[in-house]
Design brief:
The structure holds two protein chains of two kinds. In chain A, 74% of the residues lie in helices and 0% in strands. Chain A is an all-alpha fold. Chain A has one domain. In chain A, helix 6 packs antiparallel against helix 7. By secondary structure, chain B is an all-alpha fold. Chain B has a domain of 47 residues. Chain B is 80% helix and 0% strand. Chain B is built from three helices and no strands. The longest helix of chain B is centred in the middle third of the chain and has 32 residues. Chain B is elongated. The relative contact order of chain B is 0.15. Chains A and B meet through helix 6 and helix 7 of A and helix 2 of B.
C-alpha cells in the first residue's frame, strides 16, 4: 500500500469517526432533553445525571475537535501529496502515523483522540438509526420506555469502548444514573396503580372507619405524585 | 416475606373465635355485669375485629394489585400491620 493509499484510508476512517461522534453527540442531546424535563418535574433530583451527561457531551466535542484537526491534515495531504515532503509537515504526519498504527491494531487498538476504528464507528452510526424516539410521552409508561431505550443504547456503547477510552467510564456512569431515573419513574407508576386500587376499594368498604383508613393512604400517595414531565426541546438549553 | 395464605388461615380462625366470644357475651344475662360485657364487646370489635377486617382488605388489595405494583414504603407498612395482626 502506498502512502497516498494509506492517507486516503485514514481520511475515510476519520470521516466515519466524525459521523460516529456526531451520532454520540445526538444521543447525548436526546438524553439532555429528557433529563431537563425530569429535573423540572422532580425538583432537580437528577442533577448528577445531568452533570455526567454534560461531561459526556464535552468529551464528544473534544473528540470532534481533534477529529476535525486530523481530518484537515489528512484531506490536505491526500489532495496535495507533495506537502508530505515538507519538513514543517512532518510532525503532523507523525500524528497520522500513530492513527494508522491504531487502525492496524484493530477494533480495540491504542486510543487516539478524535479517532474510532471503522468497525466501532459503523456500529455507533447503526445504533443511531435503531433508536426511534417517541415524540409524544403522555404517560409514565411512555417515559419509562424512553429511558429503557436510552439505557439500552448506552449499554451497547459500553460494550464498544475499552475501559481505557476516556468515554468508557462516562458511559458506565450514565448507565448507572439511568437506573435511578427508571426506578423513580417505576415508583410513580406504582403510586398511580395503588391509588387506583385504593380508591376503588374505599368506595366498596361498608364500615366508615375502613373507608377513612384507605382515604388517608390515598391522600398520602397523592402527595407523592409528581406532575408528568413535558419534554423540553434541545434549543431551550440553559 | 410473609406467608399470606398462613395469615389468611389464622385470620379466619381468629374471626371465628372472636365472633364466638361475642355471641357468648351476648348470652350473659346479668344486670351487674352488663356494663363490663358491653365494654368487652366494644373492645373486641374495635381493637380486634376491625384490624382483622382491615388486614383482610389489605391482603385483598395486595393480591389483586400485585405486591410488585405497590410502592415499597407502603408495602413495608402493610406487611408490618399484617405481622401485628398475627399477634391478635
Amino acid at each position: 500500500m502506498t502512502m497516498d493509499d494509506s492517507i486516503r484510508t485514514i481520511a475515510k476512517a476519520l470521516g466515519q469517526s466524525n459521523e460516529a461522534f456526531n451520532s454520540l453527540e445526538g444521543l447525548s442531546n436526546a438524553l439532555f432533553c429528557n433529563l431537563d424535563s425530569m429535573n423540572k418535574s422532580f425538583s432537580n433530583a437528577f442533577q448528577m445525571q445531568r452533570i455526567l451527561n454534560d461531561q459526556f457531551r464535552a468529551q464528544c466535542s473534544l473528540q470532534l475537535h481533534e477529529n476535525q484537526k486530523l481530518m484537515f491534515v489528512a484531506t490536505k495531504i491526500a489532495s496535495e501529496p507533495q506537502l508530505a515532503e515538507q519538513e514543517s509537515v512532518v510532525p503532523l504526519l507523525s500524528n497520522l502515523a500513530e492513527l494508522d498504527a491504531s487502525l492496524q491494531d484493530g477494533e480495540f487498538g491504542r486510543p487516539i483522540p478524535g479517532f474510532l476504528h471503522p468497525k466501532i464507528a459503523e456500529t455507533i452510526i447503526d445504533l443511531q438509526y435503531e433508536f426511534r424516539r417517541n415524540t409524544v410521552l403522555s404517560s409514565w409508561d411512555d417515559w419509562i420506555t424512553e429511558f429503557h431505550l436510552l439505557q439500552g443504547q448506552f449499554q451497547r456503547l459500553i460494550e464498544l469502548f475499552p475501559i481505557e477510552h476516556p468515554v468508557s467510564t462516562m458511559l458506565v456512569s450514565i448507565h448507572l444514573g439511568l437506573d435511578q431515573i427508571i426506578e423513580t419513574i417505576g415508583e410513580q407508576i406504582k403510586i398511580e396503580c395503588t391509588i387506583q386500587a385504593l380508591t376503588q376499594h374505599s368506595s366498596e368498604v361498608i364500615h366508615p372507619e375502613h373507608a377513612a383508613y384507605f382515604r388517608l393512604h390515598v391522600l398520602r400517595l397523592e402527595d407523592k405524585l409528581v406532575t408528568l414531565p413535558i419534554r423540553s426541546r434541545g434549543d431551550e438549553e440553559e | 416475606m410473609l406467608d399470606i395464605e398462613d395469615i389468611q388461615q389464622r385470620i379466619a380462625l381468629a374471626k371465628e373465635y372472636h365472633h364466638a366470644t361475642l355471641e357468648q357475651l351476648d348470652q350473659i344475662e346479668s344486670n351487674h355485669l352488663s356494663g363490663q360485657v358491653r365494654s368487652l364487646q366494644h373492645s373486641i370489635t374495635h381493637n380486634i375485629l376491625r384490624p382483622i377486617e382491615r388486614a383482610e382488605m389489605l391482603i385483598d388489595i395486595i393480591s389483586t394489585t400485585g405486591a410488585d405494583n405497590i410502592p415499597g414504603f407502603l408495602l413495608e407498612e402493610w406487611y408490618l400491620e399484617l405481622r401485628r395482626i398475627q399477634t391478635l
